[in-house]
Design brief:
Blueprint lengths: L3 H7 L6 E6 L5 E6 L1 H12 L4 H16 L1
Antiparallel strand pairs: 1-2
C-alpha cells in the first residue's frame, strides 16, 4: 500500500493508474499516471521536433527524387 503522505503529495487517488518501472540499480519505481504527469510529458513533446512535419518533408523529397 502507498502511504497516505505520498498519495496526497503525488495525487494518487483510488483508480489512479500507475506504471511500474525498473531503474538502473534494479529498484522498482512506481509512476502514477495522473493528469499532471500527462501534461508534463506532453509539454516535453511540444518542444521537440514535429515528427509529422519531418515525415511529410522526407516523403515529398522522396517523391521529387523518384520523378
Amino acid at each position: 500500500m502507498v502511504p497516505a503522505e505520498l498519495r496526497r503529495k503525488h495525487g494518487i487517488e483510488a483508480g489512479t493508474k500507475v506504471k511500474f518501472l525498473e531503474d538502473q540499480f534494479g529498484r522498482i519505481v512506481l509512476q502514477p499516471i495522473t493528469e499532471e504527469f500527462v501534461d508534463r510529458v506532453m509539454g516535453c513533446l511540444e518542444q521537440g521536433p514535429d515528427l509529422l512535419a519531418n515525415w511529410e518533408k522526407e516523403h515529398r523529397e522522396e517523391d521529387e527524387r523518384d520523378r
